[in-house]
Each structure stands twice: as C-alpha cells, then as structure tokens.
Amino acid sequence: MADYPTTFDKDDLLKCARGELFGPGNAQLPEPPMLMMDRITDISGEGGPHGKGHVVAEFDIHPDLWFFQCHFPGNPIMPGCLGLDGLWQLTGFNLGWRGWQGRGYALGVGEVKLTGMVRPDRKMLTYYVDFTKAVQTRRLTMGVADGRVEADGETIYQVKDMKVALSES
C-alpha cells in the first residue's frame, strides 16, 4: 500500500481531480460538477466484508445542485446514473490510493438496483464500496466491487460486480 491517509476532505478530492494526489497519468477524479462526493471518511486495501478493501464517502445534497434544474423540470430527481458514477469514481480512487499506476476507467457493472430517489429535500448520500477482488499483474490492474448508496440512511441504490481498471496507455 502507498502511504496515503484513510480520510480525504473536499480539498484533497479536488487535488486528485487536478492530478496532484496520485501523480500525473494516474487515477484521477472528475472535477465538479461531475465530482459526486464531498469527502471520503474511510478507505482501506484490506477492510470490508470480503477483506479486499473498501471505501466510505459522503455527498452533501443541496436543492441548488445542477442536476435538479434539468432532471426533471417540475419533478427534480438526481439521475441514478450519477450515483452509479460516484461508486465507480470511488472504486478507481481506491486503486490509486493503493499506489497502483494508470488512469482509471469503468469497465461495467453486473447488476444495478434502484429502489429510491434523491430529491432536493434529502440531506446526504453515503457511498459504500466493498471490493470482492483487487488484481494487479503485469498486464492487468483492476478492482471488482459491490456498492450501495444510502440517502439519509435509507438504501436507495445497490450494485454488484462493478469493475474499474487502470491503464497506463
């Protein structure tokens, strides 16, 4: 494991978005407004229910967030794909946090269940990413994880077999 902290605030996440945290050409988060978390409260390479690593992060919900204006006028809802993207972002962040090299990209997800919605009256999303596999070989760097998103403590999104890889090309 690289020698990084186990918590990150918004400034740290913005450094990652600028390529300053893990170095040029390595795992990078998107900048706002596509950055889907405000802080990482816990991260590991051996924690979680499978002992393969985990990430816990939070995203503060405000009624003036950009997506509420356009999805949908008169019926504002956060698009579910943004919650999924937040889970992918955190999966790739964990790979960079491990010190593994390369730029991150999503490979897919096995199963997605959306059972609730994020409306402007919600206060906070909590993301949970639990790795089932983390592989680094000469030819492949990849994480496979299950995830869930809670809105104010209520599970609203669940995913299985989410895959993110790092590539140096």
UniProtKB/TrEMBL annotation:
Leading EC class: lyase
Gene Ontology biological process terms in this record: fatty acid biosynthetic process
InterPro entries: FabA, FabA_FabZ, HotDog_dom_sf
Protein's cellular compartments: Cytoplasm
Pfam families in the record: FabA
Gene3D superfamilies per record: Hotdog Thioesterase
Subunit description: Homodimer.
Pathway note: Lipid metabolism; fatty acid biosynthesis
Coarse class of the protein's main subcellular location: cytoplasm
Domain of life: Bacteria
Organism: Roseivivax sediminis
Name used for this protein in its record: 3-hydroxyacyl-[acyl-carrier-protein] dehydratase FabA
